[in-house]
């Protein structure tokens, strides 16, 4: 799976580790993410894009990431990524159809990658909103 990681986002906070972990788990559960790994200093998560449901909902989702808790500095570091798997798979299918059927279908490849470009900006905003919700949440 090809991932495009975003720059790490860091926020200082005066919340305790247990409050931060509660807020992170609440936010991830509320948005439907799967927690892959959880320990005292980090929580790693992902989103399964192959679930049944609305594609518009998946379009704005962060594909995965990690929350790192620094107890000494009182900071929270959030790194998230989006995956290129769907776009590469769809481009390959369209290229095969264009090779054996009608080459005019290849024009759709441009639209797929334009949608990906819009998705990059939408996911960046979603990631920032997730981080702000974790910092400001009162569970």
What can you tell me about this protein's structure?
The chain is α+β, with helices and mostly antiparallel strands and 139 residues long. It has a single domain, classed as TATA-Binding Protein. The protein is 47% helix and 24% strand. Strands 1, 2, 3, 4, 5 and 6 form a six-stranded antiparallel β-sheet that branches. α1 (17-31) packs antiparallel against α4 (107-136). The model has no long low-confidence stretch (mean pLDDT 85). Keywords: Membrane, Transmembrane, Transmembrane helix. The chain crosses the membrane at residues 76-98, 104-122.
Q: What structural category characterises the helix and strand content? A: alpha+beta
Number of strands: 6
- CATH T-level fold name: TATA-Binding Protein
Mean pLDDT: 85
Strand content: 15-25%
Number of domains: 1
Along the chain, the helix and strand elements come as: EEHEEHEEHH
- CA-based gyration radius: 18 Å
**CATH arch. level architecture:** 2-Layer Sandwich
Low-confidence stretches: none
Q: Give the overall form.
A: elongated
Describe the sheet with the most strands. Answer: 6 strands, antiparallel
CATH C-level class: Alpha Beta
Number of H- or I-type helical stretches: 4
